[in-house]
Amino acid sequence: MTQFTDFGLAQPVLKALEEAGYHTPTPIQAQAIRPAMEGRDLCGIAQTGTGKTAAFALPILHRLSLENRRAPRRGCRVLVLSPTRELANQIAESFSDYGRHLPLTNTVVFGGVTIGRQERALAPGVDILVATPGRLIDLIERRSLTLEGVEILVLDEADQMLDLGFIHALKRIVKMLPAKRQSLFFSATMPKNIAGLADQYLRDPVQVAVTPVATTAERVEQEVIFAHTGAKQALLAHILRDPKIERVLVFTRTKHGADRVVRGLDKVGIAASAIHGNKSQPQRERALAAFKDGACRVLVATDIAARGIDVEAVSHVVNFDLPNVPESYVHRIGRTARAGADGLAISFCNDEERAYLRDIERITRQKIPVAPFPEGFQPPSRQEAAEIAQAEERRPDTRGQQRPGGGRPGQRPGQRQGRPGGGARPAEAGRGSGRPQQQGRPQGAQEARPARPQGENRPSPARTEARPDNRPRRPDARPRNAGGAGASEGRAIGWLDRAPRS
Fold first, then answer.
1. Are 159 and 191 in contact (CB under 8 A)?
2. Are 433 and 490 in contact (CB under 8 A)?
3. One domain for residues 225 and 349
4. Are 37 and 56 contacting, i.e. CB atoms less than 8 angstroms apart?
5. Could you tell me the strand order of the sheet in which 152-156 lies?
6. What is the pLDDT of residues 219-243, one digit of tens each?
7. Are the CB atoms for 384 and 235 separated by under 8 Å?
8. Beta strands at 152-156 and 298-301: parallel, antiparallel or unpaired
9. Which segments show compositional bias classed as Basic and acidic residues (predicted)?
10. Dihedral pair phi/psi, residue 49, rounded to 5°
11. Each residue of 253-277: pLDDT tens digit?
């Protein structure tokens, strides 16, 4: 096969491909499209950036266009499962692009955003649903979605979907699917234990592996630089000062590590954004959008961004931390050298990570060349790096300090402190006990009270006998639970219910 027209795809699909400038299929597309069009189960393995999304999207659109069937209410005809929100968004956009001339509907659902809008989109039924497993189960449990009408199931990044993090959710989902269906699994890596598990969900599948499992893209130049942990931050900053680096993805093993790298780059005047699981969905979308449009040339990410994020013109990938799962290395460096472009993957390796490096070289069947420090770079000694780290730890954190004027920690000047009197909302006042809410002291009263001389006890005309703990009772003291449970609840709500400002 040399042209998309040779497959016999529906004319509206071919028209969309023509408008997008696609004429010649990639190897994975050439081998996967025809059996998928015939309704066969399929397991496709190919390097990242080789067009796996089109390899399943095009035959699916073709099959749906041949059958003039409506999607069931609160249901879908095609279910595509993705491990990450970003990848789910990308897949949905691909279906929209390739099916722009077809009267088909598709939507994407994932966590981190309000579920109500997603429920309304699913109410009339959709032809193609792209979802992350967690949010999909949420919608099913709320009876906003049924899977009884699914005709085709797709697992993208199937190795991760079948791993421990998702396998329990996947087993629940598969039980709700019709037994008679087509299943399409695609991934860049497929370890043997995961491949055995995949066979449980596929019936007489067509095996398509255009490259050996877990091989890296040929156009990615790779190198590793040995550096102790304390030198990595300075080494990254030195590399990023090179104006030839147009757009770079930096990978860390942990979420806190990604934030720490961003803070370190900010101190030396290099703008960067972080994307990981602790970020809200709007924050992740803004960071990715700024990276795509060139507003931010450095994106620091955990492995969440290594799975299928298709950003054009990523010139460099830097593994600040080597991954402890060797297959993740293949996905990481596959973010560069996409669509025939060239790219460079630089890995930092400290003494503790040498075992990870050996695992990566074993699974990729190649030796990664060792590179020296860049010209002009003087790495800090281990002692200097340790002193810098200790200074950072000793630096006072002013985020939790009291601001002048009695504001709460982190409160902006002039921002209202709580509610007047420190009470609850009107609807919550007196909740639980039915007693009226007692109003607290006016704001700032505590600061205005003169300090009592140390050791002085105020006499109590109402009650002078000593309490069991030998402390006299103040005559103006109110009962501890004055105002009932609602009072304490009200004050707690006043502190917690405000959404944090991002």
1. yes
2. no
3. yes
4. no
5. 106-109, 126-131, 76-81, 152-156, 182-187, 42-45, 206-209
6. 789 999 999 999 999 999 999 998 8
7. no
8. unpaired
9. 391-400, 464-479
10. 80, 15
11. 999 999 999 999 999 999 999 998 8
Cα separation, 121 vs 100, whole angstroms: 18
pTM above 0.70, yes or no: no
Assign residue 99 the CATH number of its domain.
3.40.50.300
Domain match, 271 and 191 both: no
Structure tokens given for 252: 């860390």
Asked whether residue 295 falls in the same domain as residue 170, the answer is no
- Rounded distance between C-alpha atoms, residue 382 and residue 449, angstroms: 53
Identity at 159, one-letter amino acid code: D
Q: Quick one: tokens of 135?
A: 């949010």
318 in a domain, yes or no? yes
Q: Which two tokens stand for residue 179?
A: 């037994």
331: containing domain = 220-375
* Cα 384 from Cα 496, distance rounded (Å): 42
183 in the same domain as 228: no
State how far the alpha carbon of 408 is from the alpha carbons of 272, 421, 443, in Å: 30, 15, 12
pLDDT-based confidence at 210, cuts 50/70/90? Answer: confident
Residues with Cβ < 8 Å from 380, sequence gap 6 or more? 230, 231, 234, 388
